């Protein structure tokens, strides 16, 4: 919504500048007030069109999910914090550190390259993303579901909790 309002404002401004409108120009003060009110809506704004409306935590989780599904280790590992921690819920630490996650994931992707992860439901709250996922073996069609909780710090995935 915020993007649409800004696009309308830019269009109006361009039309006024080109003389396409016979109405008087919008005074600078009113324009600034309108931009301020739009900013107060505090909606995600991404004029690139790549991830309109998705929060940074959601973008990070989606990037790693797509990397996993495509067997692309670089895209999978990129959103993770250097000091990432992977747990089996509630507190069983499996690994710590991006380098260890890289080695673990490389082995897992080699063994599981015939798997696909589908996000059934995603909940985003502040710096936490909770996914309900369906993992399907492309080899034999077996399915399992799990809940994965991602905690974000410094715009990177810092903690991952898996509930199987």
Predict the CATH topology of the largest domain: Nuclear Transport Factor 2, Chain: A
- Which CATH class of the largest domain is shown? Alpha Beta
H and E string: HHHHEEHEEEE
Proportion of helical residues: 25-40%
> Counting H and I runs of at least 4 residues, what is the number of helices?
5
Count the domains: 2
Query: Shape from CA axes?
Result: globular
Sheet with most strands: 6 strands, mixed
Rg calc: 22 Å
Low-confidence stretches: 1-26, 42-51
By helix and strand content, what is the structural category?
alpha+beta
Query: Could you give the distance between the termini?
Result: 38 Å
Q: Care to count the β-strands?
A: 6
Strand content: 25-35%
**Order of neighbouring strands in the sheet with most strands:** 2-1-6-5-4-3
Give the mean pLDDT: 76
The name of the CATH architecture of the largest domain is Roll
Keywords: Signal
Pfam families: SnoaL_2
Organism: Fulvivirga sedimenti
Protein name: SnoaL-like domain-containing protein
């Amino acid at each position: 919504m915020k993007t649409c309002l800004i696009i309308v404002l830019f269009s109006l401004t361009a039309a006024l500048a080109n003389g396409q409108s016979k109405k008087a120009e919008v005074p600078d003060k009113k324009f600034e007030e309108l931009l301020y009110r739009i900013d107060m809506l505090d909606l995600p704004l991404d004029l690139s069109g790549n991830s309109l409306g998705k929060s940074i935590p959601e973008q990070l989780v989606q990037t790693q999910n797509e990397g996993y599904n495509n067997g692309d280790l670089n895209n999978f590992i990129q959103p993770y914090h250097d000091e990432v921690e992977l747990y089996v819920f509630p507190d069983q630490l499996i690994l710590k550190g991006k380098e260890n996650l890289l080695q673990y994931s490389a082995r897992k992707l080699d063994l599981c390259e015939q798997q696909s992860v589908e996000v059934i439901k995603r909940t985003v709250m502040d710096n936490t993303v909770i996914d309900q996922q369906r993992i399907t073996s492309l080899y034999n069609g077996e399915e399992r579901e799990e809940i994965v909780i991602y905690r974000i710090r410094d715009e990177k995935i810092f903690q991952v909790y898996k509930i199987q």
